[in-house]
Structures are given as C-alpha cells and as structure tokens.
Amino acid sequence: MHVTGDPVQLQQVILNLIINAIDALAETEARTREVSVTTVRSGAFAEIRIEDSGPGIASSDLKNVFNPFYTTKPQGMGMGLIIARTIVEAHRGQIIAENKPAGGARFTIRLPIAR
Questions:
Q1: How far apart are CA 95 and CA 111, in angstroms?
Q2: What is the DSSP string of the chain?
Q3: pLDDT (tens digit, 9 = 90+) per residue, 62-110?
Q4: Distance from the CA of 85 to the CA of which of 18, 71, 74, 96 falls in 20 to 30 A?
Q5: Distance between CA atoms of 17 and 52, rounded to whole angstroms?
Q6: CA quadruple 11, 50, 84, 70: dihedral positive or negative?
Q7: N- to C-terminal Cα distance for the chain?
C-alpha cells in the first residue's frame, strides 16, 4: 500500500504526533506509558494511527486542538497540529483527533492510496 506525497512533510506530521503522544505521558506512571503507531487499509485510504496511554484530550479541548494558537502545553505555541492538518489536507487527506474508549488519545491520518 503506497500513498503519494512529500515524504519530508508527511514525516514531519507523524513525528509531531509521536512527540505530542510522548509529552502526554509525562505525568503517567512509567509502567503504563505506551505509544503505538499502526497502519491499516480502510477502503481507498491508508490510515496511520498514533495512540497513547495518557490521560486523553479533555472534551473541552477536543474541538479546538486543530485551531491556530490553541495549546494546552505550558511551552506550546499552538501551531503543530494546525500545520499537521494543513499538510495532510494538502495531500488530499484528513486528520482526526479522538479519545480511545479505554483511555488515551488517538490521532488518525487518512491518506488516499496511490493507484
């Protein structure tokens, strides 16, 4: 399964999401810290899922995470996720943020599979 796109930009998106997931684990007990990256085919799309076992995203923050300058990090600028969304959408894809039912956050990148 292949997607078409700028590998440096897509790498930047994935790396940003992994770093965010690691940051979310900072206050979690060491034995329960987990970040996973998985890929699956979903119809005509490749999905890349970055998940963590952290506290998840507060429901009041969930609707704003992709807004420019919105951050929950003390040192954050609030630009990482809007840049990630811009890159994914430029590749005719979609990025979704949600909480996992068992706890933690999941970011899903959906990109069209190359023909």
A1: 9
A2: --B-S-HHHHHHHHHHHHHHHHHHTTTS-GGG--EEEEEEEETTEEEEEEEE-S----HHHHTTTTSTT---STT--S-HHHHHHHHHHHTT-EEEEEE-TTSSEEEEEEEEBP-
A3: 898 888 887 777 677 778 899 999 999 999 999 999 999 988 999 999 9
A4: 74
A5: 10
A6: negative
A7: 9
Residue holding tokens 């979690």?
Answer: 28
Structure tokens at 103: 């706890």
- Note whether 8 and 19 are within 8 A (CB): no
Cα distance between residue 26 and residue 73, in whole Å: 12
Contacts 24+ apart (CB under 8 A), 59-64: 62/97, 62/98, 62/99
Q: What strand order describes the sheet that includes 105-112?
A: 35-42, 45-52, 105-112, 94-99
